[in-house]
Design goal:
The complex is a heterotrimer of chains A (about 230), B (about 160) and C (about 625). With about 230 residues, chain A is α+β, with helices and mostly antiparallel strands. In chain A, about 20% of the residues lie in helices and about 15% in strands. In chain A, a hairpin with a 6-residue loop joins strand 6 and strand 7 (about 155). Chain A is globular and about 50 Å long. Chain B has about 160 residues and is α+β, with helices and mostly antiparallel strands. Chain B folds into two domains: about 5-60; about 70-165, Glutaredoxin (3-Layer(aba) Sandwich), CATH 3.40.30. Chain B contains seven helices and five strands; from the N terminus they run ααααβααββββα. Chain B starts with 5 loop residues before the first helix and ends with a helix. By secondary structure, chain C is of the alpha/beta class. Chain C has five domains: about 25-125, Glutaredoxin; about 150-360, NADH-ubiquinone oxidoreductase 51kDa subunit (Rossmann fold); about 370-455, Ubiquitin-like (UB roll); about 460-545, de novo design (two linked rop proteins) (Up-down Bundle); about 560-625, 2-Layer Sandwich (Alpha-Beta Plaits), CATH 3.30.70.20. Chain C is about 40% helix and about 15% strand. Classes of the chains: A alpha+beta (about 230), B alpha+beta (about 160), C alpha/beta (about 625). At the B-C interface, helix 2, helix 4, helix 5 and helix 6 of B face helix 2, strand 11, strand 15, helix 19 and helix 26 of C.
Chain lengths: ~230, ~160, ~625
């Protein structure tokens, strides 16, 4: 027997079962909160920090990731306030300048309002979203890949660099990877990384004011949680 | 020269996944690093997926996935030691031992490993260098040079002793 | 020693031990802490044992080896009672003379007395030494009286009385009320009211609860916890037992960082001894209360000082923090209610129970009660552990206790609170050291680290140092920390290497806000603090680096040049031989020259120059001569 709670997100009353995350509750009701590492059917790790919202309590608001915040009765959330959008844009800018060579990443940056990239571009092949790792571990129980190393050296790898027997080459990891979707003109050359700003999500959003979902095609083949 | 087997080191901690880090530290103390064989054995005895063993071994600085040198020089780079001049010590060690990393490494002959640690808690007597577990306070580049030379000499004598 | 089965037996044992202690006519106390060990105190101790035997005094003289006294720079330290004679910087060769003259005889060996650097006078007793005199060593004074490897010492000075009191007179809620009334706030950096934490944990749902001691002390420059855990592990264990009784736990963990091998060894030994005597384990002192403790070692990760990462580590996983929307007092170790407190916090609990909440609250300020141990290090004359009441002005700690600057230089700033804290300029030294005041000024009490910096410290370099440290220690899970700190470091590195542009400052400030607000855990959230505080108080240094490509303190290697003053150089060749990069050339007795292209600005040459002939200049302006 599901217990429901009612919370307010951007002024709208949302009903969701207890145990749901604020992000899931919002997306289910058509309120768009951008996200990257959140994937349906996988655990939430709160790594990308794109889904941050303002949690208003006792007159103060705290910035927190909505994917790891569970709904509570009477909760007050501001997902698309100026403050949330500014911070989200800056996080997306960090992500973009780290790994621009992906249409999904460029789409997300645009969707989050990034207009210019103020840091020198790098060209990493991985954004450490953990979709592959969690897919392998939680969905297929392969335990074949994991996050290895710490800080800047954190990367995804097989144990000791060797593909273990538990990996059956199902390729589910590749399917969920945002970097596997190259930008329109193909992979960018090293040293020539750029933010072209022409991805489809941008073309579909006129002047974006509210948090309503516009059903943007966030990187073909890399659907956001709304696009089941 | 018999080192205890991995099974012996694991001891009565079999099937206790939460003991992973303690077990790996014990193995590090005996073997000076975590080899693939050791990790596979730990994975088996503790019931932890190999990828998790590998993750921990790569995450924690106290654990090493590469064999370490016979003599380990630990330089403290904590705030107090930094303010008192720990950088020149690293310069000195790297130049003397011909290491190319900016933060230490192991010499090709496997005699020395230089590593940096972010504070040993002996701040009042810094800069500190630890050689094989012995703390040396008020380190200077000159003292470090003598220390390394002394170890080299001892190793050479051990080498000649072994030959006779 | 026999196993104690009732509280009366504890009191009997204590009376016996106190009588034995009172009968000790002559006692030699030597510090065996990590600092003094580094100064070879173990060799001194061995020599004392041998010499006492040789002079046939081993039966009548008691040798007590204590833990860290927090005065490490003057170690090895020795006190001879009943004369209360204080000797320092002892070498094994001094021992024979000490035993003959000062132990068997009544002489004082002048050269072994402490010399006050300010007056040059010799001082005989510990209490007269200015460093000690100005302190209030409520907790640290216990280190002086006990051998951490002998539970008898702790019992003799009244140890475990508080636990006995709690088991007989205090219901759990009463303990929580007493700790709450004392005003004790977390000593690890968070400053959270301890009573409130215990109350939430007690109220949390769950039959199995835990108490954890955070002895990870990763802040570079802080070693208070090392000293307390090495030197007085039973105070920590007793505190944990009291806490466990209060919240309803039966199992505790002490998480000690691996870099403290002596603290690991002493806590393990203390637990073994407490178990043997019945002060840990089942049915403690016949009360029906069960409590046991295990030691878990850290693996060399600063992030494991964060509560959720620490608990992940105890669970055998990598130390990655998790979101704290649900607190660890409800969902902690193995998802069970857990009370995690710092070493110093736990160690303060027995005295609060023994002396009462009023006693503790009588010291300190309105919002910050009691005493706190600080680790005073850096460019001061007297470095060491300083215990003072909260609310003591910075000036008193740095000058009265610390003795002011070394080498006649000017003190520029003090960095408090470790990598999460900030730098406060000399103009703010009248500020009182308490949680609220330091936070308002842009720094924090943190775990207690206090690094004094003088004019030879570059504040841009300090910001760079802390950012590099935090980037190295970041777990790497979330974007703002892993990438944000990296980009802040990139900007500051540009500035320190002469590539700084004015527009980078507002970008840096925006990045600071993003990292602070959106990071997952406190490491990321507080990472910008050194940047914020140095920008606030030392902006002129940043601007000099950017506009003039000049490092006023002569530290940033890309912006400085080492030059040999031809007039002062005697051509002795010391620097030429010392240079690891062979960058110095010159014939004997002729002025030497540094090849600017080969020079890596490491400074080793200047360490050995006796003629002050090596100058550092930056932006065409000399900084100072060495």
């Amino acid at each position: 027997m599901l217990q429901y709670v009612t919370l307010t997100i951007d002024g709208a009353k949302v009903r969701a079962p207890k145990g749901t995350s604020v992000l899931d509750a919002a997306v289910h009701d058509g309120i768009c909160i951008p996200h990257l590492c959140h994937t349906p059917d996988l655990s939430d790790i709160g790594a990308c920090r794109l889904c941050i919202v303002e949690h208003v309590r006792n007159g103060t608001s705290k910035i927190t990731a909505s994917c790891t915040l569970l709904v509570q009765e009477g909760m007050m959330i501001r997902a698309n306030s100026d403050r949330a959008r500014k911070l989200r844009r800056n996080v997306a800018e960090l992500l973009l300048t780290e790994a621009p060579n992906s249409r999904a990443i460029q789409d997300i940056a645009l969707r989050c309002g990034v207009k210019e990239a103020r840091y020198p571009f790098r060209n990493n092949d991985c954004v450490l979203c953990g979709r592959c790792v969690r897919t392998c571990t939680e969905l297929y129980r392969g335990n074949a890949i994991g996050f290895v190393g710490r800080g800047k050296n954190r990367h995804v790898e097989y144990p000791f660099g060797t593909r273990p027997d538990t990996c059956v080459l199902c390729r589910a990891c590749i399917t969920v990877c945002p970097m596997s979707i190259p930008p329109c003109d193909g992979p960018m050359k090293r040293g020539e990384e750029r933010f072209c700003g022409k991805c489809e999500s941008q073309l579909q959003i006129p002047q974006y004011e509210s948090g309503d979902c516009v059903r943007c095609d966030l990187g073909r083949g890399f659907s956001c949680a709304r696009h089941r | 020269m018999s080192q205890p087997s991995i099974e012996t080191i694991v001891g009565d901690r079999k099937s206790q996944p939460h003991q992973l880090i303690e077990v790996l530290q014990d193995i590090q103390e005996v073997y000076s690093y975590i080899s693939q064989e050791a990790a596979t054995a730990v994975s088996h005895y503790l019931g932890v997926p190999l990828i998790e063993v590998f993750r921990s071994a790569s995450f924690y600085k106290a654990l090493s996935l590469e064999p370490r040198g016979k003599n380990v020089i630990t330089l403290c780079t904590g705030t107090a030691c930094h303010v008192r001049g720990s950088n020149p010590l690293l310069d000195q060690a790297q130049a003397l031992l011909k290491l190319d990393h900016d933060h230490g490494g192991t010499t090709k002959d496997g005699l020395f490993t230089v590593e940096c640690v972010n504070c040993l808690g002996a701040c009042a007597i810094g800069p500190i260098a630890v050689l094989n577990g012995v703390y040396h306070p008020h380190m200077t580049s000159a003292k470090l040079t003598s220390l390394i030379a002394a170890v080299r000499e001892a190793e050479e004598m051990r080498g000649t002793d072994a030959q006779t | 020693m026999p196993r104690l089965k009732a509280i009366t037996e504890l009191f009997d044992l204590r009376a016996q031990l106190q009588a034995a202690r009172a009968a000790e006519k002559t006692v030699i106390t030597v510090c065996g802490g990590t600092g003094c060990q580094a100064s070879k105190s173990l060799a001194v101790i061995d020599e004392i044992r041998a010499e006492l035997k040789r002079q046939q005094l081993d039966a009548s003289v008691k040798l007590r080896i204590t833990g860290c006294q927090g005065f490490c720079e003057n170690g090895p330290i020795m006190v001879i009672d009943p004369r209360n004679l204080f000797y320092c910087r002892i070498v094994p060769e001094d021992v024979k003379e000490i035993i003959s003259q000062s132990v068997a005889g009544t002489e004082v060996i002048e050269r072994l007395l402490y010399t006050d650097p300010a007056t040059g006078k010799k001082i005989r007793t510990e209490a007269e030494i200015p460093f000690y005199r100005a302190q209030d060593r409520v907790l640290l004074s216990q280190n002086r009286q006990i051998d951490p490897c002998a539970i008898e010492d702790y019992v003799a000075i009244g140890g475990y009385t508080a636990l006995a009191k709690v088991l007989t007179e205090f219901a759990p809620e009463a303990v929580i009320a007493e700790i709450g009334a004392s005003g004790l706030r977390g000593r690890g950096g968070g400053g959270f009211p301890t009573g409130k934490k215990w109350a939430s944990c007690r109220a949390a749902a769950g039959d199995e609860k835990y108490v954890v001691c955070n002895a990870d002390e990763g802040d570079p420059g802080a070693y208070m916890d090392r000293s307390v855990l090495e030197g007085n592990p039973h105070a920590v264990l007793e505190g944990m037992a009291i806490g466990a009784w209060a919240i309803g736990a039966e199992q505790g963990y002490v998480y000690v960082r691996k870099e403290y091998p002596l603290a690991v060894a002493h806590s393990r030994q203390a637990i073994t001894q407490a178990r043997e005597i019945g002060l840990l384990g089942a049915n403690i002192l016949g009360s029906g209360f069960n409590f046991d403790v295990q030691v878990a070692r850290g693996g060399g990760a600063f992030i494991c000082g964060e509560s959720t990462a620490l608990m992940a580590s105890v669970e055998g996983k990598v130390g990655e923090p998790r979101a704290k929307d649900v607190h660890t007092v409800e969902d902690g170790l193995w998802h069970r209610p857990t009370t995690l407190n710092n070493v110093e916090t736990w160690a303060n609990c027995p005295s609060i129970i023994n002396n009462g909440a009023h006693w503790f609250a009588s010291k300190g300020t309105e919002g910050s009660k009691g005493t706190k141990i600080f680790a005073l290090t850096g460019q001061v004359r007297n470095t060491g552990l300083v215990e003072v009441a909260m609310g003591t002005p910075l000036r008193r700690i740095i000058f009265d206790i610390g003795g002011g600057a070394i080498n006649g230089r000017a003190i520029k700033a003090v960095q408090t609170g470790g990598p999460s804290g900030g730098c406060l300029p000399a103009s703010l030294f009248d500020l009182s050291v308490d949680f609220e005041t330091l936070e308002k000024a842009g720094s924090m009490v943190g775990s207690g680290g206090m690094v004094v910096m003088d004019e030879k410290t570059c504040m841009v370099d300090v910001a760079k140092y802390f950012l590099a440290f935090l980037l190295d220690e970041s777990c790497g899970k979330c974007v703002p920390c892993r990438i944000g700190i990296d980009r802040m470091l990139e900007i500051i590195t540009d500035i320190s290497e002469g590539r700084g542009r004015p527009e980078q400052i507002p970008l840096l400030e925006e990045l600071v806000e993003t990292v602070q607000e959106t990071s997952l855990c406190a490491l990321g959230k507080t990472a910008p603090n050194p940047v914020i505080s140095t920008l606030r108080y030392f902006r002129d240094e940043y601007l000099a680096h950017i506009r003039e490509k000049r490092c006023p303190a002569g530290v940033c290697r890309e912006l400085i040049a080492y030059v040999i003053d031809g007039e002062k150089c005697t051509g002795c060749g010391v620097c030429l031989r010392a240079c690891p990069y062979e960058a110095i050339k010159g014939a004997k007795k002729e002025p030497h020259i540094i090849d600017a292209l080969a020079c890596r600005k490491c400074g080793i040459c200047s360490e050995g120059c006796k003629f002050e002939a090596i100058t550092i200049s930056s932006g065409g302006v000399p900084c100072y001569s060495m």
